[in-house]
Amino acid sequence: MTTLSPPPTAPPASDPYRDLVAATARLLRLGERADRAVLLARVLDGLADVVPSLRGETLRSAAQASTAYAALLQIVNSPAAAEEWRAHDPFAEARRRGVEAKRHILAVEGGALTVGQVAERLGITTAAVDKRRRQGKLLALDTVRGNLYPAWQFVGDDTLPGLPRVLTALDALPWTQASWFLSANGYLGDECPLAALRRGAIDAVTEAADAFGEQGGT
Questions:
Q1: Which of 18, 56, 143, 177 has its CA 20 to 30 A from that of 184?
Q2: Backbone angles phi, psi at 155, to 5 degrees
Q3: What residues pair up with 158 in beta bridges, in sequence order?
Q4: Which of 214, 141, 147 is nearest to 181 (CA)?
Q5: DSSP secondary structure string, the chain?
Q6: pTM of the full predicted structure?
Q7: 180-188: long-range contacts, CB 8 A cutoff, minimum separation 24
Q8: Is the pLDDT of residue 46 over 70?
Q9: Strand partners, 185
Q10: For residue range 100-131, what is the model confidence (pLDDT) as tens digits?
Q11: Distances, alpha carbon 188 to alpha carbons 84, 196, 211, in Å
Protein backbone atom coordinates (compact mmCIF):
# COMPACT_ATOMS: atom_id res chain seq x y z
CA MET A 1 0.00 0.00 0.00
CA THR A 2 1.38 3.34 -1.02
CA THR A 3 1.46 5.96 1.67
CA LEU A 4 0.79 9.43 0.42
CA SER A 5 2.72 12.21 2.05
CA PRO A 6 0.70 15.22 3.10
CA PRO A 7 1.02 18.17 0.74
CA PRO A 8 3.69 20.63 1.80
CA THR A 9 2.38 23.55 3.75
CA ALA A 10 3.37 27.10 2.97
CA PRO A 11 5.87 28.55 5.41
CA PRO A 12 4.36 30.99 7.85
CA ALA A 13 4.50 34.56 6.74
CA SER A 14 7.41 36.47 8.15
CA ASP A 15 6.80 39.35 10.52
CA PRO A 16 7.81 41.96 7.93
CA TYR A 17 5.38 40.43 5.43
CA ARG A 18 2.54 40.45 7.95
CA ASP A 19 3.35 44.09 8.73
CA LEU A 20 3.18 44.89 5.02
CA VAL A 21 -0.20 43.17 4.68
CA ALA A 22 -1.55 45.03 7.72
CA ALA A 23 -0.29 48.37 6.42
CA THR A 24 -1.78 47.67 2.98
CA ALA A 25 -5.14 46.79 4.53
CA ARG A 26 -5.07 50.05 6.47
CA LEU A 27 -4.37 52.00 3.28
CA LEU A 28 -7.23 50.27 1.48
CA ARG A 29 -9.62 51.24 4.27
CA LEU A 30 -8.42 54.85 4.06
CA GLY A 31 -8.88 54.72 0.29
CA GLU A 32 -12.61 54.18 0.57
CA ARG A 33 -12.93 57.96 0.24
CA ALA A 34 -12.37 59.07 -3.35
CA ASP A 35 -10.14 62.05 -2.51
CA ARG A 36 -7.92 59.92 -0.29
CA ALA A 37 -7.82 57.16 -2.91
CA VAL A 38 -6.41 59.58 -5.50
CA LEU A 39 -3.73 60.80 -3.10
CA LEU A 40 -2.77 57.32 -1.87
CA ALA A 41 -2.52 55.99 -5.43
CA ARG A 42 -0.06 58.75 -6.37
CA VAL A 43 2.00 58.31 -3.20
CA LEU A 44 2.18 54.54 -3.65
CA ASP A 45 3.14 54.92 -7.31
CA GLY A 46 5.97 57.19 -6.21
CA LEU A 47 7.16 54.72 -3.60
CA ALA A 48 7.01 51.91 -6.15
CA ASP A 49 9.37 53.93 -8.35
CA VAL A 50 11.79 54.88 -5.56
CA VAL A 51 12.03 51.82 -3.32
CA PRO A 52 13.68 49.52 -5.92
CA SER A 53 16.41 52.15 -6.27
CA LEU A 54 17.25 52.20 -2.56
CA ARG A 55 20.50 50.38 -1.84
CA GLY A 56 22.77 49.45 1.02
CA GLU A 57 22.86 51.75 4.02
CA THR A 58 20.03 53.94 2.74
CA LEU A 59 17.67 50.98 2.55
CA ARG A 60 18.77 49.59 5.94
CA SER A 61 18.54 52.96 7.63
CA ALA A 62 15.03 53.62 6.33
CA ALA A 63 13.86 50.10 7.20
CA GLN A 64 15.23 50.44 10.74
CA ALA A 65 14.00 53.98 11.36
CA SER A 66 12.45 54.55 14.77
CA THR A 67 9.05 55.53 13.35
CA ALA A 68 7.15 55.25 10.09
CA TYR A 69 7.44 59.01 9.69
CA ALA A 70 11.21 58.87 10.06
CA ALA A 71 11.39 56.10 7.46
CA LEU A 72 9.33 58.14 5.01
CA LEU A 73 11.49 61.22 5.53
CA GLN A 74 14.66 59.22 4.91
CA ILE A 75 13.24 57.85 1.67
CA VAL A 76 12.05 61.26 0.45
CA ASN A 77 15.43 62.85 1.23
CA SER A 78 17.49 60.02 -0.26
CA PRO A 79 19.60 60.41 -3.44
CA ALA A 80 17.47 57.70 -5.04
CA ALA A 81 14.33 59.81 -4.58
CA ALA A 82 16.10 62.82 -6.05
CA GLU A 83 17.12 60.78 -9.10
CA GLU A 84 13.60 59.47 -9.63
CA TRP A 85 12.23 62.98 -9.22
CA ARG A 86 14.57 64.33 -11.88
CA ALA A 87 13.78 61.40 -14.18
CA HIS A 88 10.02 61.96 -13.99
CA ASP A 89 9.90 65.76 -13.76
CA PRO A 90 11.90 67.88 -16.23
CA PHE A 91 11.53 70.85 -13.88
CA ALA A 92 12.63 68.94 -10.77
CA GLU A 93 15.95 70.75 -10.44
CA ALA A 94 14.30 74.16 -10.73
CA ARG A 95 11.71 73.12 -8.14
CA ARG A 96 14.46 71.89 -5.82
CA ARG A 97 16.29 75.20 -6.11
CA GLY A 98 13.04 77.01 -5.35
CA VAL A 99 12.48 74.95 -2.23
CA GLU A 100 16.05 75.59 -1.06
CA ALA A 101 15.67 79.32 -1.70
CA LYS A 102 12.51 79.43 0.40
CA ARG A 103 14.19 77.52 3.21
CA HIS A 104 17.03 80.04 3.14
CA ILE A 105 14.65 83.01 3.26
CA LEU A 106 12.85 81.52 6.27
CA ALA A 107 16.10 80.76 8.10
CA VAL A 108 18.23 83.90 7.70
CA GLU A 109 18.23 87.11 9.74
CA GLY A 110 16.57 85.65 12.81
CA GLY A 111 14.25 83.14 11.15
CA ALA A 112 10.48 83.51 10.93
CA LEU A 113 7.68 84.00 13.45
CA THR A 114 4.15 82.66 13.68
CA VAL A 115 1.20 85.01 13.84
CA GLY A 116 0.94 84.36 17.59
CA GLN A 117 4.59 85.25 18.14
CA VAL A 118 4.18 88.45 16.13
CA ALA A 119 1.08 89.41 18.12
CA GLU A 120 2.96 88.88 21.38
CA ARG A 121 5.94 90.86 20.16
CA LEU A 122 3.88 93.83 18.96
CA GLY A 123 1.41 93.70 21.85
CA ILE A 124 -1.63 93.33 19.60
CA THR A 125 -4.12 90.59 18.76
CA THR A 126 -3.60 87.99 16.07
CA ALA A 127 -6.55 89.54 14.22
CA ALA A 128 -4.73 92.87 14.21
CA VAL A 129 -1.60 91.18 12.87
CA ASP A 130 -3.61 89.64 10.05
CA LYS A 131 -5.21 93.01 9.29
CA ARG A 132 -1.76 94.61 8.94
CA ARG A 133 -0.72 91.76 6.65
CA ARG A 134 -3.76 92.30 4.42
CA GLN A 135 -3.09 96.04 4.34
CA GLY A 136 0.46 95.39 3.16
CA LYS A 137 2.06 96.73 6.33
CA LEU A 138 3.61 93.39 7.33
CA LEU A 139 5.30 90.77 5.16
CA ALA A 140 3.95 87.25 5.60
CA LEU A 141 5.04 84.15 3.67
CA ASP A 142 2.59 81.38 2.86
CA THR A 143 3.98 78.00 3.99
CA VAL A 144 2.67 74.56 4.90
CA ARG A 145 2.73 75.81 8.51
CA GLY A 146 0.53 78.78 7.64
CA ASN A 147 1.68 82.37 7.33
CA LEU A 148 5.17 82.99 8.71
CA TYR A 149 6.60 86.47 9.27
CA PRO A 150 10.32 87.10 8.66
CA ALA A 151 11.78 88.24 11.98
CA TRP A 152 14.00 90.86 10.33
CA GLN A 153 11.02 93.17 9.75
CA PHE A 154 10.70 93.79 13.51
CA VAL A 155 12.77 95.97 15.82
CA GLY A 156 11.92 95.50 19.47
CA ASP A 157 8.14 95.78 19.82
CA ASP A 158 7.62 97.58 16.50
CA THR A 159 8.25 97.12 12.79
CA LEU A 160 11.41 98.25 11.04
CA PRO A 161 11.07 102.00 10.31
CA GLY A 162 9.96 102.60 6.73
CA LEU A 163 8.87 98.99 6.15
CA PRO A 164 5.17 99.65 5.38
CA ARG A 165 6.12 102.41 2.93
CA VAL A 166 8.58 100.16 1.10
CA LEU A 167 6.15 97.23 1.01
CA THR A 168 3.53 99.49 -0.56
CA ALA A 169 5.99 100.56 -3.24
CA LEU A 170 7.23 97.05 -3.92
CA ASP A 171 4.73 95.57 -6.37
CA ALA A 172 5.48 91.84 -6.07
CA LEU A 173 4.29 88.65 -4.42
CA PRO A 174 5.38 88.10 -0.79
CA TRP A 175 8.10 85.52 -1.51
CA THR A 176 9.54 87.80 -4.19
CA GLN A 177 9.38 90.74 -1.78
CA ALA A 178 11.30 88.76 0.85
CA SER A 179 13.96 87.76 -1.66
CA TRP A 180 14.26 91.38 -2.85
CA PHE A 181 14.90 92.67 0.68
CA LEU A 182 17.73 90.16 1.14
CA SER A 183 19.44 90.48 -2.27
CA ALA A 184 22.09 92.93 -3.49
CA ASN A 185 20.44 95.82 -5.31
CA GLY A 186 22.05 97.90 -8.06
CA TYR A 187 20.03 101.01 -7.14
CA LEU A 188 21.57 100.85 -3.68
CA GLY A 189 25.18 100.34 -4.74
CA ASP A 190 24.77 96.55 -4.47
CA GLU A 191 23.71 96.89 -0.84
CA CYS A 192 20.70 94.75 0.07
CA PRO A 193 17.53 96.78 0.79
CA LEU A 194 17.23 95.36 4.31
CA ALA A 195 20.68 96.65 5.27
CA ALA A 196 19.93 100.04 3.71
CA LEU A 197 16.61 100.26 5.54
CA ARG A 198 18.30 99.42 8.83
CA ARG A 199 20.65 102.39 8.45
CA GLY A 200 17.70 104.67 7.78
CA ALA A 201 17.85 105.06 3.98
CA ILE A 202 14.07 104.89 3.67
CA ASP A 203 13.77 107.20 0.64
CA ALA A 204 16.47 105.37 -1.31
CA VAL A 205 15.00 101.94 -0.55
CA THR A 206 11.51 103.16 -1.50
CA GLU A 207 12.85 104.45 -4.84
CA ALA A 208 14.54 101.09 -5.45
CA ALA A 209 11.26 99.35 -4.69
CA ASP A 210 9.42 101.63 -7.13
CA ALA A 211 11.98 100.78 -9.81
CA PHE A 212 11.76 97.04 -9.20
CA GLY A 213 8.81 96.40 -11.51
CA GLU A 214 9.95 98.89 -14.14
CA GLN A 215 13.44 97.38 -14.47
CA GLY A 216 12.50 93.70 -14.08
CA GLY A 217 13.83 93.38 -10.55
CA THR A 218 17.19 95.12 -10.51
A1: 143
A2: -130, 110
A3: 155
A4: 141
A5: -PPPPPPPPPPPPPHHHHHHHHHHHHHHHHTTSHHHHHHHHHHHHHHHHHGGG--HHHHHHHHT-SSHHHHHHHHHTSHHHHHHHHHH-TTHHHHHHHHHHHHHHHHSTT-EE-HHHHHHHHTS-HHHHHHHHHTTSS--EEETTEEEEEGGGEETTEEPTTHHHHHHH--S-HHHHHHHHHS-BGGGTTB-HHHHHHTT-HHHHHHHHHHHHHTT--
A6: 0.59
A7: 180/209, 180/212, 180/217, 181/139, 181/150, 181/152, 182/105, 182/108, 182/109, 185/218, 186/218, 187/211, 187/218
A8: yes
A9: 191
A10: 777 888 888 788 999 999 999 999 999 999 99
A11: 43, 8, 11
Closest CA to 196 of 164, 160, 168, 169: 160
Alpha-carbon dihedral sign for residues 115, 120, 121, 126:
positive
The yes-or-no verdict on residue 133 having pLDDT over 90 is yes
139-163 pLDDT, tens digit per residue, is: 999 887 889 999 999 999 999 999 9
Identify residue 168 by its one-letter amino acid code: T
